[in-house]
Amino acid sequence: MAVTKTLETSSLQIEIASGKDSSGNTTYRKKTFSNVRTDAASQNIYDVATAIKDMLNVGTRNFYVADSSTLVSA
């Protein structure tokens, strides 16, 4: 049985500093930006993430792209 994977949605996530833990280490939370074009080039997504990071007044760590796909048996 063949299965087809179809990319449905993408979102950009940026880890944003949210405070300190009991050991003094920085803690992070993810801020999600939905409705990223599923055909967007990785470089373009990175450029947008960098522009957002530069506008924020807090530290950031990593950028992520979260994809959601459907699986359909053919």
UniProtKB/TrEMBL annotation:
<feature type="domain" description="DUF1659">
    <location>
        <begin position="2"/>
        <end position="72"/>
    </location>
</feature>
<protein>
    <submittedName>
        <fullName>DUF1659 domain-containing protein</fullName>
    </submittedName>
</protein>
<dbReference type="Pfam" id="PF07872">
    <property type="entry name" value="DUF1659"/>
</dbReference>
<dbReference type="InterPro" id="IPR012454">
    <property type="entry name" value="DUF1659"/>
</dbReference>
